Amino acid sequence: MDKGLHFMLCVTAAMLLLRESSQTGEKNDQKMLLHPNPEGGLPTLTVTTILEDPYVMVRSAELEGYCMDLLKALAGMLHFSYRVKVVGDGQYGAVTSNGNWTGMIGEILRKEADIAVAPLTVTSAREEVVSFTTPFLQTGIGILLRKDTVSQEMSFFHFLAPFSKEIWTGLLFAYVLTCFCLFLVARLSPCEWNEPKNEENHFTFLNSLWFGAGSLTLQGVTPRPKAVSVRVIAAAWWLFTIALLAAYIANFTALLSSGTEQLPIQTFEDLVKQRKIEFGTLEGSSTFYYFKNSKNPIHQMIYEYMDKRRDHVLVKTYQEAVQRVMESNYAFIGESISQDLAAARHCNLIRAPEVIGARGFGIAAPQASPWTKKLSIAVLKLRESGDLDYLRNKWWESSCLSQSRDRWSPLQPQALGGLFLTLGVGLALGVIAAVVELSNKSRHAAGHLKKSCCSVFTEEMCTRLRIKENTRQSQETSGRANA
Q: Where would one find the signal peptide in this protein (predicted)?
């Protein structure tokens, strides 16, 4: 009996010693991840990430992408080595019903990884359990569509779309004003109408309107101006019309090739109101919980739609989402920066103009980790040096010819303000030249008739504008009626 008890005590003591040594070894291994080894080597960090183009991709049995280049730059600045592992469940990180976290957030909490370098959105729920660095990429929530998902008939007046309403109003006003100035200056200029009593002025108001319309369509029309003052106005109008037509043709061409005006869904409200296109997002993503927690009625409707059909509209991966948008009537709600990449790689895809929920991608680490502040400072230095912009341009390079298909908008008055100003200056110069021409003729006539220049100038003005003649005709008409 004593031998048996002695044997049991020995076995128990041996097991306790083995357990203690095992725990000590695990602690030393964890420390080796964060601190240099005794031989003076670099600290080694275990990095968890997720496969998503262009952040992390597998090429020739190696990982590459935006996040891998960022990790390499950070390791060079902070002098650490790293070991990269792809997250086991393929999730970003969401809390389950029993309070546990999935994805990369869960691996950090379980100490399976030291940091997470991935397109991981900084949210309040994640910030409560892990620590995030300064965001290395800014993004938002957008809608990814196929251009031909829903065909929308063009408006009957679609040809008016290149210019805004203000520009069309200004063009009509400029046309009428220019034609009136042509009519007025042609009557005032002696070079255009030397003998008002004996000659007929070809620049009537209707002819002036016809001249302006012909110039607007680059057609040569009569009457042809003779006086310098009339030619100044005509030249200003020609310059105006040439520049205006060039702007119209360029903007109309961009409109036809962009497809923006034909896109039926411009906002999230448009997405909710229609019934032809299904829409969803990544299952368990921050985007899904953004709509769940939002108090906006439109956002609540989007969440209720996705929650009721979660088995059908929620996707597992980003690649699955893009493929589904391309092959079916499906709109993907997700990170706008990732959607920009999809639109750059696949020219038949387009992102709707509205972007909501501004947020950023950050590097996650355990709370109170000494690496959080170091990585944040390093990210800020990379941003200040332009390295982050370089990486963005490197991995977001587009294969589509048109880079502005979703940037088109009608020309605003500010864009053509200088053109209207040039026309106004030309009209003013033409009127001034006509007055100078008439003044010179009146001065010569006053010397021959021995009258004051002002009286002769006034008579010329009245004659050319038919003031006296109209008055005399009305008097003769009234006299005949009284007789």
A: 1-23
